[in-house]
Amino acid sequence: MSHPILDRWLVRRMGWPEINDVPTRRQLFQWQMARLRETLFHARTHSPFYARLYGKTPIPDTLTTEEYARLPMITPDDLRRSPEQFLCVSQDEIARVVTLESSGTTGSPKRVFHTQEDLEATKDYFDWGMRPLVEPGQTALVLMPGGRPGGVGRLLMEALERTGARAVPHGVLEDARTGVNHLLEEGAACIVGSPPHVNMLTREWERRDLPKDMIRSVLFCWDEIPDAVCFNAKNAFGCTVFRHWGMIETGLGGAVECEHGRGMHLRETDVFVEIVDPETGNLLPDGRFGEVIVSTPMRRGMPLLRYRTGDRGRILTGECACGSPLRRLDPLITRMHGGVPLETGTLTLSTLGKALYALPGLWDFTAWFSKNTLHIQVCGDSACPADKVRTALTNIPTVQAALAGKTLKLAVKVRNTTTPAVPGLGKRRLLTTEP
Ligand SMILES: [Zn+2]
Asked: Measured in angstroms, how far is the CA atom of residue 347 from the centroid of ligand 1?
């Protein structure tokens, strides 16, 4: 039996010599704990932040996952307060700094430092992770900018070149018509993009009645991935869809699906994931939803140890049909904060996405909540009149109850347009002010 492509990447990244020797889950945990133990020593020796945090913590010779889970967690606010204090190498060794605008409590942005080694590792992961999607000689259209060295678009371009495939950056999608024109001009077999932007392309593809044998695969990334958007892409393009999860804090690539599409295999060598109860901080077993906590076993420049992502997710139980020892994240990853508290429960963008993207003729939408009114602005065609949007919203239990109790009003507007509902590539949020 041949090994899944990601297992071949795993064995190489672990520094194991033989491809026939794929680690068991237990061996992989032991390897991760040994690397994290080294990282703990490295971090508390070289970073002022970790010196304060872990300076006096006894670290056993052999670290178990349970012992590791007893270490304190760090938060995005720690990163905002003093990102330089996380650095374990000199600034000269930093190849790329990413500044993430703040949505947190301190008001200052997060800064994430990447070394050349980190960028190489991400490129290597992209190379192997994309092999099931794009064959040598094929082209992937990437709905992101490609000009910035070390940026996602550029790393994908460089990664795909290694196997003789090609990534063409389209830039941020501004119009579905030009996006589809670009797909056709390049003869692209694969699309990489955020769920709302890919959804815009699927609608334009259907509108032009284009064939179902050109696009072979879609990689969804960057933001939450509603099931309906996956379904729409499979339906319009006749392709296989792959879901990806990643964070800039952990070096972009975090987990990706294999061709079986049953959960995203973690990039275990570089991103160790724990799921904890957000209230108590206690470790939760596989299968249970909780807060996703990440650590970076291989990072030397700016390691993260037990970093609270603010994302809600879970590890799937059982084994994938591909047989890989890489654990799988449930693709249903949502943000823990950011919903709007209605009197009848919290309303989130995920709930709205689930209800709305399933509507025929709906291309994209944006939502905001102000003065007891939920405003929904839809980009849609004639198959998606406002009353259908209204009905879909009314079928959401929290919305239905709030409407019945007269504590909520709906304002729905449908625009017939081929431009996305929200400009740019920021992560989508349910706003509490008019955009
Ligand atoms: Zn698999």
From this structure: 33
Rounded to the nearest whole angstrom, what is the distance from the C-alpha of residue 394 to the centroid of ligand 1?
A: 37
- Domain at 1-336, CATH homologous superfamily: ANL, N-terminal domain (3.40.50.12780)
Looking at the chain, which residues constitute the CATH 3.40.50.12780 domain(s)?
Answer: 1-336
pLDDT at 250: 85
Whole-prediction pTM: 0.94
Q: How far is the CA of 327 from the centre of ligand 1 (A)?
A: 9
Query: What are the pLDDT digits (tens) for 381-416?
Result: 999 999 999 999 999 999 999 999 999 999 999 999
pLDDT beyond 90 at 151: no
The answer to whether the CB of 429 falls within 8 A of the CB of 423 is no
Q: Supply angle C-alpha 107, 248, 267, rounded to 5.
A: 145
Question: What single DSSP character describes residue 250?
Answer: G
With a CB cutoff of 8 Å and minimum separation 6, the contacts of 156 are 126, 130, 140, 142, 146, 167, 169, 192
203 within 8 A of 381, measured Cβ to Cβ: yes
The residue ranking higher by pLDDT, 223 or 294, is 294
Ligand 1 center from residue 264 Cα (angstroms): 8
Band (285; pLDDT cuts 50, 70, 90)? very high
- Rounded Cα–Cα distance for residues 296 and 254 (Å): 10
Query: What CATH number has the domain spanning 340-415?
Result: 3.30.300
CATH 3.30.300-classified regions of the chain: 340-415
Q: How far is the CA of 4 from the centre of ligand 1 (A)?
A: 8
